Amino acid sequence: MIKFDTAAFFLDQRLIPEVPTTARHLSDLRGIFADTNAYESVIIHDNPLIYQVASVEPADGDGQLHYGLGMLLPGRIGDEYYMTKGHFHAYRPAAEIYVTLRGEGVMLLEDESGVSRLSPMHTNTIVYVPGHTAHRTINTGAEPLMYLGIYPANAGHDYASIAATNFRSVVIAVNGQPTLIPRVDYLTQFNGTGS
Ligand code: PAN
Ligand code: ZN
Question: Considering only CA atoms, which of 35, 28, 115, 23 is closest in space to residue 80?
Fold first, then answer.
């Protein structure tokens, strides 16, 4: 049992709930990992927790903010690291700030024209996710990746638009290093050859 350690995080006198509002297990992430054989070989006997989020929504309406404390566990499926589903904001102009509280990871960002980039996530660093940008959090370290995401109350989540391509790039471990490559290249050349 992995403890969702919220005790250290008090924000504006509101304790982030100890019970996460979202918990995603491997079975919730079918179709996300490129190496389907690796996925099936795990899911047949195990359904580990991959991440959970405790969201706080103090108020709705213009000018309001919501925020969520995320904990993404370390691990890999094939050559890929544990990661979130990823989404665009339903209200496309909505941006988001991610503050990494603990751990090591990368944020995969993809704009609406399909251009991808990585932004590093280290303890005490900030990633600015612009509007109109799909974002997926990836734990490349050995410890849980803890982060706070702060976003406009009207941002919403659009999972379907980016699920159509499941992001055009993958982040895989090559010689132990997180490496961004086009999904099509991974599927045709790299599948099963990373380390
Ligand atoms: C975050 C994400 C959280 C989980 O709070 O919702 O990291 O990722 P998925 O929503 O993609 O499963 C956020 O970006 N909110 O807008
Ligand atoms: Zn978001």
Answer: 35
**Structural domain contains residue 195:** no
Relative to the CA of 151, which ligand 1 atom is closest? 16
**Between β-strands 22-25 and 80-81, what pairing exists: parallel, antiparallel or unpaired?**
unpaired
Among 50, 53, 91, 109, which is best to mutate for testing ligand 1, by the most ligand atoms less than 8 A from CB? 53
pTM of the model: 0.91
What CA–CA distance (Å, rounded) separates 89 from 97? 13
pLDDT band at 12 (very low <50, low <70, confident <90, very high): very low
- The maximal CA–CA distance of the chain, rounded, in angstroms, is 51
* 194 is a domain residue: no
190 φ, ψ (degrees, to nearest 5): -95, -15
**CATH code, 140:** 2.60.120.10
Could you list the residue range(s) of the whole structural domain that residue 50 is in? 6-189
Which residue(s) pair with 128 in the sheet? Answer: 97
